[in-house]
Amino acid sequence: MEKFLYISLFSPLIATLFSSIFAFFKPQKFIAYINSILIFISFISALFLFSEIYESNIATRVILFDWINIGNLNIAFSFMLDHISIIMLLVVTFVSTAVHFYSISYMKNDQGFNRFFCYLSLFVFSMIVLVLADNFAVLFLGWEGVGVCSYLLIGFYYKKQKAQKAANEAFIVNRVGDMGLMLGMFVIYWNIGSLDFDIVFKTIHSLSNTTISLIAILLFIGAMGKSAQFPLHTWLANAMEGPTPVSALIHAATMVTAGVYLIIRCNEIYVLVPNIGLFISYLGAFVAIFAASMALVNNDLKRIIAYSTLSQLGYMFVAVGVGAYSIALFHLFTHAFFKSALFLGAANVMHATKGNLDIRKMGDLYKNMRITAIFMIISSLALCGIFPLSGFFSKDLIIKSVYSKNYEILYITLILTAFLTAFYSFRLIMKVFFVKTNIENQNSQNIQEAEKLALFSIVPLTILAIFSGLFENYFEEFSNRLLPSFSINLKYEELFILISIISVVSIFGILFAIYSYKNQKQEVKRVGFLQNILLKEYFIPKIYRNILVKPYLGFSRFINRYIEDKLIDNTIDKIALFAYGLGSRLRPIQSGNLSTSLRLMIFGLLASLLFIIVLLVY
């Protein structure tokens, strides 16, 4: 089993090192194919590992080498393969394989082609390190790795100022969350004396409730940053400045799923503090409807799908908050497939329309892009939770879980979010593919379907978007071997009514969107008051700029002007000038004149004798 673990882990790293050699050379397709094949090998190895764990039901720990040995701190660079990590490994490698092969077609004319695949493979390697980590230190290494790679990929087009700002924002906001994770690790080590998962989870119950709560809060702050939960959410929509395949990877298999994974991995901590879990649930429900409301009116193709990710992450945090860890993991599993298919479909549309992202400037693309339209419709139906697609099984389980525990506010919020999700998803579909365009310069003859390689890359994702929900029972049985079981105690009548309500709400949202836009022509309308609030993201970015960014910038300028320039720099300059002046005065001593040297020697001798006499007298 260790052999396959090493293959799965290090294949992306080998791909990174290989492509880095050619990073700044002329774009070469063979580099991309080798990278993609290596990621595929990682996925195949993950399948072998899954079969081993499924049959033996035994977790495997692999120590690569001793990493940190300082005093009582002993940390091994070790990995653990269990029921949680193998599921994450399968998701990461499968989606990454599809994204890599898709990117060969998408990035073929980009001057940064080789560099892109170098970053992309490193992104996958960092995420695999994160999910296979056996202790918090190795997890943090992968955690920071995905942060750095997201910075490189979001700011891939570094000559664009918007890309620079988006990359910086993602990096800085995530540092806030990472500080929470670091402090949580410090508190864990201070109280337990180890960062190994096994020791921490076995010992955590012996700590006081206050300490456990502090650890849970700090770890959740880390999760908030990576999974873009309010108030650390602003970076996610702006991260769309990177190439679209990057968005598919960030939103489906890496980065944003890391926060959910962290809470699931630390379930033995959160089980002990149910009040913290309840807070996570209510925050998740707020984020779900908050993000969905912003997607309702947005006109940026990629941002709408990004808000959709933020909303679905809210669903996952609701599930982990009420203790339904396996259900949250199942929704993460199904969501990865239909969300990556949606983003790659959006990439096809973007390519066909010469980089356009404004859905008001699209319309009537179905006749030229039928295959892409079918992919995106299927993925949108899965996102809406329509039977028998995957989202129906996973998202409905989350709603059932909160209903069974009588969390009425959570239930109503998620039901309303399901309606909004259905509406904005098919608002996008209608505006992009079916609404008649009235834009005069829209030349439909120039709009073509994506290349075959790109389309074939989306096929497996779409297939799993349809069928992955059917693995519900197998998934529950497998994941509950490690995770605490969660029972939904509802009668058949209640289940039938609940499923009917969820389905009717979603279907009504879809039909309402179709009805609203079926006869409408694309046009730029006047923005109303409420619409303006939603387009401005409730003015939260502006509030952050005024309350945090501008005061900090003003303080930094004050420090630069009065402390750096006038105090520190001026002091250093004065010392330098004094040293220079003293050197100028002493420079004649080294003139090389013999007479001068003898006089100085005699003067030095007399001074030394005088000093000795003074010491003897006193």
Describe this structure in words.
The protein has 618 residues and is mostly helical. The chain contains 24 helices and two strands. The protein has helices at residues 2-21, 29-56, 83-106, 113-132, 136-154, 161-192, 197-203, 209-226, 234-238, 244-252, 256-265, 267-270, 274-295, 301-321, 325-352, 370-384, 390-404, 408-434, 452-467, 472-479, 492-517, 529-535, 540-586, 594-617; strands at residues 60-70, 73-81. Strands 1-2 form a two-stranded antiparallel ribbon. Helix 11 (256-265) runs parallel beside helix 14 (301-321) and helix 18 packs parallel to helix 21 (492-517). The radius of gyration is 30 Å and the shape is globular. The N and C termini lie far apart (83 Å). The mean pLDDT is 88.
Kindly list the characteristics that best describe this protein.
618 residues, mainly alpha, two-stranded antiparallel sheet
Taken in chain order, the helices and strands follow as: HHEEHHHHHHHHHHHHHHHHHHHHHH
Q: What separation lies between the terminal Cα atoms?
A: 83 Å
Largest sheet: 2 strands, antiparallel
The helix count comes to 24
Give helix % range: over 70%
Low-pLDDT sequence parts: none
Q: What portion of residues belong to β-strands? A: under 5%
Tell me the structural class. mainly alpha
Strand order across the largest sheet:
1-2
Number of strands: 2
Instruction: Give the overall average pLDDT.
Output: 88
Short précis:
The protein is mostly helical and 618 residues long. The protein is built from 24 helices and 2 strands.
